[in-house]
Amino acid sequence: MKDAGARPGPAVSVCIPVYNGERFIAEAISSVLRQTFADFELIVSDNASTDRTLEIVAGFDDPRITCIRNETNLGPGRNYNRLMEAARGKYIKVLSADDYLFPDSLQRMVDVFEDEANAGVVLASAGREVVDDSGAHLLMRGRLRSDRRIAGLEAVRQMAASGTNIVGETSAALFRADAARKAGLFLDDAPYCVDMDYWFRLLEHGDLYVVSGVLSAYRVSSGSWSLDVLDRQAADVAELIDQAMVRGIAGITAADALRGARAAKRSARMRNVMYVIARIPASHREKLRFLVVGGWNTLFSIAALWLLDRFVPYDPDSLLHKQAVLVVHWVISVTQNFFTFKLLVFRSKGHWLHEYLRMYVTYAATFLIQSVLTLAVSQAFGLRLFWASLPSIAVIAVISYLGHRHFTFRRTHDGR
Known about the structure:
- The chain is an alpha/beta fold.
- It has helices at residues 25-33, 53-58, 76-86, 105-114, 152-162, 177-183, 194-202, 227-247, 254-278, 282-311, 319-345, 353-381, 385-414, and strands at residues 12-18, 40-46, 65-69, 91-94, 100-101, 121-131, 137-141, 148-150, 173-176, 207-219.
- The chain has two domains: 12-278, Spore Coat Polysaccharide Biosynthesis Protein SpsA, Chain A (Alpha-Beta Complex), CATH 3.90.550; 282-414.
- The longest helix is centred in the C-terminal third of the chain and has 30 residues, at 282-311.
- The two termini are 37 Å apart.
């Protein structure tokens, strides 16, 4: 590590405020050191931790790392501000000690600011993956297909009216140091909306640029939040919006403030659901996800065949007609299966293609086997296709369950 001020300022200052962060601080630091963009300094401000945080930070041998030690706990806001005062970079990122960056995070955001067309942009943010204590995926936030620029005051009004931090947590953002000097420091006394408050003030001096894709991970720690804390967060957001309205920022109206306060309460309830889900072990969440999607696929397949069998005109005694209906049913079922697995199971997994294709081919083959069995039963017993399909669906469901039980879930649990 080095002393602050030992060399000219870098392009980016990555600032990590931490208190008793021994569980995740190494992952946060490592994610910064793995960046494809190398012109940065990394400043860690330890807020009088009583665990092994300092020892872990000291174990990293990189001249770009500086560690600040607070003798007493200053609170989150003042700890943020120690980092802001120490930062020497042209751009600043405040990375939570629980979170981590994807390798191209700094490069893609610096590219935004270095583009001459974006001279008026003061704040950039991107989508993030929400993960649990173990790093297992929970959901995605703010993922876009293309970049977009939003006027600063318009972004403020959107946040006020929606009661939602559309920029994201500090880990998801990068901002200009010169604009930060105009906006001032982080609040000391609003721990539950300190980031949103800062975005309000920062965006008075320029625009927001939303980078497409996912560039960081936001960790939901199962023991970090309670419903009471979330209620206080919603109250802080409502108060922030009211203050912005009184100051006359971005034309925020009383209706905007009322709508935003209600939305903040709804968001708190939804976030509480997410934290409850985060307490479920990842292996169990994986089983539930497959169970829900698999069950929905089965119900959809049954309903589709019932509709085809009931309303599509065909000769139930004709083998060719039955085959045509089953081919249409197979195409519908496989297409629907493709979208449900892509959107609900494999939407955000890294390196998902091989596993996704394996699962997709398996289900396509399953539907094909089901169609063959349905046709055989229909011909043997003179049944319409829907009724002939029910025994095969039951057989396929049992085989599918056993397959997931002994292959998919065992591999997830054992890590193979």
